[in-house]
Write a structure and sequence with these properties.
Number of strands: 12
Mean pLDDT: 88
CATH architecture of one domain: Alpha-Beta Complex
CATH class of one domain: Alpha Beta
CATH superfamily of one domain: Oxidoreductase, molybdopterin-binding domain
Low-confidence stretches: 1-7
Order of helices and strands: HEEHEEHEEHEEHEEEE
Distance between the termini: 68 Å
Structural class: alpha+beta
Strand content: 15-25%
Radius of gyration: 27 Å
Shape: elongated
Number of helices: 5
Strand order of the largest sheet: 4-3-12-7-8
Length: 253
């Protein structure tokens, strides 16, 4: 009996040592594969500001989310009492201090060589819409904010240019063209997307994009371009400031 017990203990010790050795081998193999994968990824060529495999992943995500997006589905809204009074200012690219709001006109490029100049009075003549929603930033913060303006879909309809909605994308740029975004047409036609001229019931502050900015609740803040200077349409993806710097082009949530 004692001899049998001793043999069981010897076999058990061998099993423990074997499993320990295999565990260490597996751990170092895992580390080695991870290191090689990182080196491979690090040395792959860039694609629009990010390594090509990561950009490919972005594009796959965009196809999935884009194919399931329903432009008629509204984002959650809140009562006026929930809106913050001090709205966070984030990002100042394209917001030069020497800009004269009184001279502003939006350049609506219907096609090359065919541009309309739209004044703020033209915008305000259209039906006003308000939205109170949770504004989300890619930096991780969010605020319930209150905005007023004109639905983008109404803007096209009232100007008799609904045929432009057949394009796949809309491009927007600040007057100095230093900041620019490209957005899929489905998201632009979502009924809460606004050409916005009010914040908390008052004219837009200078640092929030006066006189006119984009509010698009289905997108993260990097797509909410301040101070719209140019608006155009395309079937190819327009340039996008943050996508060129490695961020997701779609940027929906």
């Amino acid at each position: 009996m004692e001899e049998h017990k001793h043999n069981d203990e010897v076999v058990s010790d061998r099993q423990i040592r074997r499993r320990t050795i295999l565990s260490f081998i597996g751990f170092f193999v895992f580390i080695g594969v991870g290191f090689l994968a990182f080196r491979w990824l690090y040395h792959t060529p860039d694609a629009a500001g990010v390594h090509a495999p990561l950009r490919k992943g972005y594009e796959v995500n965009e196809k999935i989310f884009g194919s399931t997006f329903n432009k008629n589905k509204l984002v959650k809204t809140y009562p006026l009492s929930a809106a913050v009074k001090n709205v966070r200012v984030n990002g100042d690219v394209g917001m030069g201090n020497d800009f004269d709001v009184s001279t502003w006109r939006m350049h609506l490029v219907r096609k090359p060589g065919d541009t309309l100049l739209i004044s703020l009075a033209d915008i305000k003549a259209l039906p006003k819409t308000e939205v109170i929603f949770d504004f989300k930033c890619i930096e991780g913060w969010s605020q319930v904010t209150h905005w007023g303006g004109v639905r983008f879909s109404d803007f096209l309809a009232k100007n008799g240019i609904t045929d432009l909605a057949a394009f796949k994308y809309v491009g927007l740029q600040t007057p100095d063209k230093q900041y620019y975004v490209g957005i899929d047409m489905s998201s632009m036609m979502q009924p809460q997307t606004l050409l916005c001229y009010e914040m908390n019931g008052k004219p837009l502050p200078y640092d929030q994009g006066a006189p006119l900015r984009l509010i698009i609740p289905v997108k993260y803040g990097i797509k909410h371009l301040k101070r719209i200077g140019y608006l155009f349409f395309s079937n190819q993806k327009p340039p996008d400031y943050w996508a060129e710097r490695g961020y997701d082009y779609y940027s929906g949530h």
